[in-house]
Amino acid sequence: MLNNAEWLDANRDEDFRAIYTATMPILFRISLRIAGNEEAAEDLCHDALIKMTEKNMQFPSLNDAKYWLIRVVINASLNYAKRKGRERRAYERALKEDKRTVDSGETALLKQDAVARVKTAMDKLPPNLRAVLHLKEYAELNYKEIGRVLGITEGNVKVRVFRAREQLSRLIGEDDVYMP
Fold first, then answer.
1. Please, are residues 11 and 52 in contact by the beta-carbon 8 Å criterion?
2. DSSP 26-83
3. Which of 8, 67, 119, 132 ranks highest by number of CB atoms within 10 Å?
4. Could you tell me the pTM of the whole model?
């Protein structure tokens, strides 16, 4: 067991740099996948790091810092995505936008359709299944890491990933589910 003097301190420059360097790429990928906007994803990641320093967080290891930050970024990104979705729907209702798109080729259209179908199907998954699938497929975390992030057992993570893929397959209506 480490004593508090050996813990990583978010307000100590060298510890903050180590945490930032080790976690920023994965935090950004997670946030970008959920928020769908590079600038917003970067802001959300930086907000999480600021929150870490404001709360004077200390961590026994780099992994503990990573898991804490992932939770903060996931929650912030989900809130951002919900807010943007509500804003978009409000604007669409107010302006009755024309949603027609210009065809840029059959391949692009098929790809757009596949991505849209997967996103729509992902939105229909229960939050606990959607979270494990985001972490597995987009954050590229292993089962053990996902368990630590979500506070569940590795076995439970495997079950949830299986169930999420199974439901996603049923929602899309295809045998092979491709995650864009």
1. no
2. HHHHHHHHHH--HHHHHHHHHHHHHHHHHTT-EESSHHHHHHHHHHHHHHHHHHHHHH
3. 132
4. 0.57
Helix axis angle, 38-54 to 62-95, nearest 10°: 130
The pLDDT tens digits of the residues spanning 127-145 come to: 888 888 888 888 888 999 8
Q: What one-character DSSP code corresponds to residue 134?
A: I
Distance CA 169, CA 125 (A): 11
Structure tokens of 35? 């928020």
User: For the purposes of burial, counting CB atoms within 10 Å of the CB of 130, is it exposed (0-12), middle (13-18) or buried (19 or more)?
Assistant: buried
Cα(38)–Cα(46) distance, rounded to whole angstroms?
Answer: 12
Distance CA 79, CA 43 (A): 13
